[in-house]
UniProtKB/TrEMBL annotation, chain A:
Pfam family, one: Utp14
Superkingdom of the source species: Eukaryota
Biased composition, class Basic and acidic residues, residue ranges: 355-370, 387-397, 669-698
Protein name (database record): U3 small nucleolar RNA-associated protein 14 homolog A-like
Biased composition, class Acidic residues, residue ranges: 304-328, 510-525
Automatic annotation (TrEMBL), chain B:
Pfam family, one: Sof1
Xref: InterPro entries: Sof1, WD40/YVTN_repeat-like_dom_sf, WD40_PAC1, WD40_repeat_CS, WD40_repeat_dom_sf, WD40_rpt, WD_repeat_DCAF13/WDSOF1
Keyword Repeat assigned: yes
Organism: Hirondellea gigas
GO biological process, one term: maturation of SSU-rRNA from tricistronic rRNA transcript (SSU-rRNA, 5.8S rRNA, LSU-rRNA)
Region (Disordered): 419-442
Origin: domain of life: Eukaryota
Name this polypeptide is given: DDB1- and CUL4-associated factor 13
Alphabetical list of CDD domains matching this protein: WD40 (cd00200)
Length: 721, 442
């Protein structure tokens, strides 16, 4: 039994000691252990002898027993658990404890990994809190049997499931608008406000516009609209339309009474000036003459109309003229004869009577109305309203045909019609001026720069220019035939860094290169050695030029005689010559097919600013180049992209206490775990790839090798950190 | 009268301020020199960084002996507590740069200072075998030195525990009120009991420091003068693992964001970062100090840590990098015994032999105070530019350049010579021995 003990113990102690770092053999413990082991072995050596003696007396085969004892430890289940020594127990407990803790701590691995690889970290970490959501009582389970009902009632009666009560705060929250709603409303009101402002501004600008033409057009527009409105009203509700008409008439009458229409600002001004200025007087007289003429004309036309009314009613071409629209008349009618008829006078008196009577009637009516209502608004609209009124009247007459003395069908005397006529005329004249086929100036030449623009002449240039350019191109083609300047040839070795861009560039060009190789240039070089000789000469010349020259400072006549046939002595020349230092051969001096122009190469200062080795985290040159290729400044990229690009890797708030990570962070660990898994996968994939390609994977743990080992660290005077 | 077109420049200014609206067209055809321009901007940003690199904010002077321990309050940013070698305890108001209160806490060194997690009590331990609990908010207000000396006598601790031997360090569990002290052995204390709950011992040597893991709060670790680092689990009440270094460890700090990583400041001038689960080799060795590293403290972000050294410098290392990103020193700063990161990771405190507590910025060219959004954006842009072009030799040279005192410079040079010589020797030995017979040192 005792031997069994010792064997078991030895095994365990071995397993405890094999990880040397773990249980650093503290001298005290070690000593105690040794002593204990020594004691046990002493016991062991003593006890078997006693036993053996005993068995010997009973006559059992001792040899067989010994064999059995040796085999016993190999039989499973037979060995009893032996009491262990204290240090041993401690050691086991420690080992188990460490393993457990290591295992336990592994739960943080995911989140640590996530944090290390996060694109952006922000501190303090946001708290993850667990909250229990109460169940609402709205859910009514489907109860089929009595038992179920009873059970449910019992449960709800016992208030196991509490209904979620709505507090005042909750109610307020529910009833209050959400942030989105508020924002929506604000947005809407803002939109309306801006719209109003915009319209107001537009109206303001329109009113301020001084262009008469503009206002005229505007007025026309408005009148047309009003007329059409009234017409429609007449169709649908004749009563209201008449009312409106009457109202308009009233306004007109009122305006007539003020005599505003007779007062012209221009005339008044002219009258003032007429006291001193004779031309003004003349103008005034001319004006009155014109006016009279016009009035006469008007009257004449009226006469004619009446006559026509009597005689023929189907003449629709002559327009229905109006006393208040002389312009239209003048435009439409043929020049009026200056003579006045007697019948006209009669008519005039008649119409005068008629008008006066009518006016009186109207006045009476107006008086009445005034009594009834307040005075209607006076304003700049009056005149226009009057005009509108007039037009509307016409229309009404037209539509109702109640007016006996007028024609049945007449074109409405819109100024538009006249305008149209005018415009047509203009159009005609325009088109006659221009070439019929070519409304735009077209040319085959595209203007690219300002100089082009200056040189460009619009008419008849294009075809000529085109032909010219064609000729030029042809000439250039002729000129660009082989003409090799050997001194300009420079061949450089392409260097180690294999830029992807450059590669692409060359790849793209390779086709064209091949094409060029086929062209007569190559033949030229192949056929005669002349070019080669020239090249060699040029090369030597270039090399000579690159060598620094000796400088001779000797002056003739100093220290010796000088004259036309006298040469300076070699001694003096040698004495005063500064010898140039021999230049080291350039890196291409051994290559006979290269002329190396050192000045055209990258300057050393630029070379100093270039990266000589592939920087650390990058594995390929293309990666490194890609990392610095795209700009990130707001000058070069859109603002939002810029903001995205400059997001900091670590965000901390000033004055915020950052607490250590706590267990709640593990709640959001799922994603982190996933990240670890993915990472492992990719790592494995990478490993496989590396193994395939025959490279040795770098273990992350190898960083330690640098400690006191072969990794070199550059030491420069300036950078110590 | 002349009529001219006139525009009020105010109409083209944003409502919020004096910012002129500028139109940009990001079409790359219009910016043929964008890379060159950005490179120049990056260069300028790097230079500006150097121009604005003024990390030293101020010194808190008042102690009359070397400062041995610093502690900050987990709930406040403006308070710092320092304990000195003559047993004096001072509580500082950092923005005001003055002492809130002070007390003669111990006879001999104040060996350990820690603030309870609630931020109400300060717990100190010292060579005089006592643990004392102080209320952080004392009513005494300091006016001038005379009163201070009187008031020093007035401040009394709330509780006092007497131990069997002198204490060398104290730490508080992050999520409960358990305390742990070191000295003869590691003792676990409950605040409400006068006797330790449990004592851990493994080996007979003095235990210098003890530290709770701040994430996995049941794990703690100690460093002893017999070059050991021991991990304990307070649930199983046993020490669980021992790690023997070549030289003694002066300080230890757990990463507050990575539960299983800790960093030690070693007597051999280096700092080592270990993974608790794989102690066979260090994850990283941080070299730059030229004399013993005395103290280490993690930034609360867990991305970098600060270390103070006997060579009179404070260095800031990134966890993943082998060399420091920053070195701070002043002419008057002597050997640094303790360093501390502020709880918002913006500042670093150092306590040194010259009796001063110094306040440094953790980013040397960082701006203090609030920044306007545009300023923020500008700084971000600059930072990103520097990051983008950091491998360009010129920028790299400027960015890496630091000035250090001549003595440190020479010492670095010497260490470099020594280490390279050792390497050379090793490589030659390997070359002249049977292949595979000499193993690489790990």
């Amino acid at each position: 039994m005792s031997s069994r003990d010792s064997i078991g113990m030895n095994n365990l102690s071995d397993s405890g000691n094999d990880s040397g770092v773990e249980d650093g053999p503290s001298p005290v413990n070690l000593q105690a252990d040794i002593q204990k082991i020594a004691k046990k072995s002493r016991h062991r050596s003593e006890r078997p002898s006693v036993r053996l003696a005993a068995t010997g007396s009973t006559g059992v085969d001792l040899g067989a027993l010994a064999v059995l004892r040796k085999e016993l430890p190999n039989v499973d289940g037979f060995v009893e658990a032996a009491p262990r020594s204290k240090p041993e127990q401690k050691r086991i407990a420690r080992k188990r404890g460490y393993e457990e803790i290591s295992e336990d701590v592994n739960k943080w691995q995911g989140i640590v990994h996530q944090q290390r690889n996060a694109r952006q970290l922000s501190f303090p970490l946001d708290k993850n809190s667990i909250s229990i959501i109460k169940q609402d009582n709205k859910f009514q389970p489907l109860m089929k049997t009595e038992l179920e009902k009873e059970m449910y009632e019992l449960l709800s009666g016992a208030e196991m499931i509490k209904p979620k009560e709505e507090s005042a705060e909750d109610k307020a929250v529910r009833e209050a608008m959400t942030l989105e709603e508020v924002l929506e409303r604000n947005k809407e009101s803002w939109r309306l406000r801006t719209l109003r402002n915009k319209l107001g501004k537009k109206a303001h600008i329109r009113n301020k516009t001084k262009s008469k033409k503009f206002h005229r057009i505007l007025k026309k527009d408005r009148l047309r609209k009003e007329a059409s409105n009234l017409e429609q009203l007449g169709k649908t509700e004749p009563g209201r339309a008449l009312d409106k008409l009457q109202k308009l008439d009233e306004i007109r009458i009122e305006e007539r009474m003020t005599l505003k229409h007779k007062k012209s600002k221009w005339a008044a001004n002219l009258q003032l000036r007429a006291k001193t200025d004779k031309t003004a007087l003349a103008a005034l007289q001319e004006n009155s003459r014109l006016h009279e003429e016009m009035v006469n004309k008007l009257k004449k036309t009226k006469e004619e109309e009446e006559a026509e009314d009597d005689s023929e009613e189907d003449d629709s071409d002559t327009d229905d003229s109006d006393e208040h629209d002389p312009e239209a008349d003048t435009q439409n009618s043929t020049p009026a004869p200056g003579v006045q008829d007697k019948s006209y006078k009669k008519m005039k008196t008649f119409w005068g009577e008629y008008n006066r009577q009518k006016e009186e009637e109207m006045k009476d009516q107006l008086e009445e109305i005034r009594r009834q209502r307040k005075q209607p608004k006076k304003g700049q609209d009056e005149q226009t309203i009057e005009e509108a009124n007039k037009m509307i009247k016409d229309k009404l007459k037209q539509s109702t045909k109640s007016n006996k003395g007028k024609k049945k069908t007449t074109c409405s005397n819109n100024p538009d019609v006249n305008d149209n006529v005018k415009i047509n005329e203009y159009e005609f004249t325009f088109s006659s001026m221009d070439k019929p086929d070519n409304p735009m100036n077209e040319s085959a030449v595209r203007l690219r720069t300002l100089d082009d623009m200056e040189n460009f002449k619009p008419d008849k240039v294009a075809p000529v220019a085109a032909s010219k350019t064609l000729k030029q191109v042809a000439n250039n083609k002729k000129k660009s035939l082989p003409e090799v300047d050997a001194s300009k040839i420079r061949v450089l070795e392409t260097k180690v860094l294999e830029s992807s861009v450059v590669k692409d560039f060359f790849n793209n060009d390779s086709d064209s290169d091949e094409a060029e190789n086929d062209d007569p240039n190559a033949d030229l070089f192949d056929e005669d050695d002349l070019a080669l000789d020239e090249f060699n000469k040029a090369r030597e010349a270039a090399e000579d030029a690159a060598q620094p020259k000796d400088v001779c400072h000797a002056l003739p006549g100093w220290g010796s005689w000088t004259g036309p046939d006298i040469k300076m002595s070699a001694k003096i020349i040698e004495r005063f010559t500064d010898k140039a230092p021999k230049k080291a051969p350039s890196k291409f001096s051994d290559k006979k097919n290269v002329i190396y122009n050192e000045e055209a190469d990258l300057h050393q200062n630029i070379r100093n600013r270039m990266v000589s080795e592939l920087p650390f985290p990058f594995l390929q040159v293309s990666d490194w180049e890609a990392s610095i290729r795209g700009p990130i400044g707001r000058t070069f990229v859109p603002e939002l992209v810029h903001r995205k690009l400059i997001e900091p890797a670590l965000v901390t708030e000033i004055g915020a206490v950052i607490k250590p990570m706590d267990q709640t962070q593990l709640l959001k660990d799922n994603r982190a775990k996933q990240a670890v898994k993915d990472n492992k996968k990719t790592k494995n994939q990478k490993k496989e790839e590396m193994e395939k390609s025959g490279e040795k994977p770098v273990r992350p743990g190898n960083q330690l090798i640098e400690f006191g080992s072969s990794k070199k660290r550059k030491f420069s005077r300036k950078s110590v950190n | 009268k002349l009529k001219v077109l006139s525009r009020n420049s105010q109409d083209y200014v944003r409502e919020c301020g004096q910012v002129q609206k500028v139109q940009h067209n990001p079409d790359p055809k219009l910016h043929p020199f964008e890379r060159a321009r950005e490179y120049t901007r990056a260069l300028n940003a790097t230079k500006l960084d150097k121009v604005f690199a003024k990390p030293f904010i101020g010194a808190l002077s008042g102690h009359i002996d070397s400062i041995w321990k610093l502690a900050n309050v987990p709930t406040r940013l403006s308070t710092l507590i320092s304990g000195s070698c003559d047993g004096e305890l001072r509580v500082w108001d950092i923005p005001q740069r003055r002492v809130t209160w002070k007390a003669q806490a111990h006879r001999g060194f104040v060996r350990g200072v820690v603030v309870e997690r609630s931020g109400k009590n300060v717990i100190t331990c010292g060579d005089d075998q006592t643990i004392k609990v102080w209320s952080l908010d004392q009513s005494t207000i300091m006016e001038d030195d005379d009163e201070q000396d009187e008031s020093k006598e007035n401040v009394k601790p709330l509780h006092e525990f007497l131990g069997k031997a002198g204490f060398l360090d104290i730490d508080c569990q992050w999520d409960s009120d358990l305390l742990v002290t070191s000295g003869m052995q590691v003792d676990l204390w409950d605040m409400n009991r006068s006797e330790p709950l449990h004592s851990f011992s493994w080996g007979a040597d003095t235990i210098n420091t003890v530290k709770f893991n701040r994430v996995e709060t049941n794990v703690l670790s100690s460093t002893a003068s017999d070059r050991n680092i021991v991990l304990y689990d307070i649930r199983s009440k046993t020490p669980i693992r021992k790690l023997v270094m070549k030289m003694c460890t002066n300080s230890l700090c757990w990463n507050p964001m990575e539960a299983f990583n800790f960093t030690i400041a070693c007597e051999d001038c280096n700092l080592y970062t270990f993974d608790m689960r794989k102690l066979q080799q260090a994850m990283n060795v941080h070299k730059d100090h030229v004399r013993a590293a005395m103290s280490v403290d993690y930034s609360p972000t867990g991305r970098e840590f600060v270390s103070g050294s006997y060579d009179q410098t404070v260095r800031i290392f990134r966890v993943s990098e082998g060399h420091s990103r920053e070195v701070y020193h002043t002419k008057r700063m002597q050997r640094v015994f303790c360093v501390k990161f502020s709880a918002d990771s913006k500042f670093v405190f150092s306590g040194s032999d010259d009796t001063n507590v110094r306040v440094w910025k953790s980013q040397s060219s960082a701006r203090l105070g609030t920044l306007l959004p545009r300023q923020k954006q500008q700084l971000r842009y600059r930072k990103q530019l520097k990051k983008k072009y950091v491998h360009m030799p010129e920028i790299r040279r400027i960015e890496r350049h630091r000035h250090v005192p001549k003595s440190i410079y020479k010492a670095t040079e010497l260490r470099h010579i020594m280490s390279s010589a050792a390497e050379r020797k090793e490589s030659r030995r390997r070359k002249h021995s049977k292949p595979g017979s000499r193993k690489f040192k790990v």
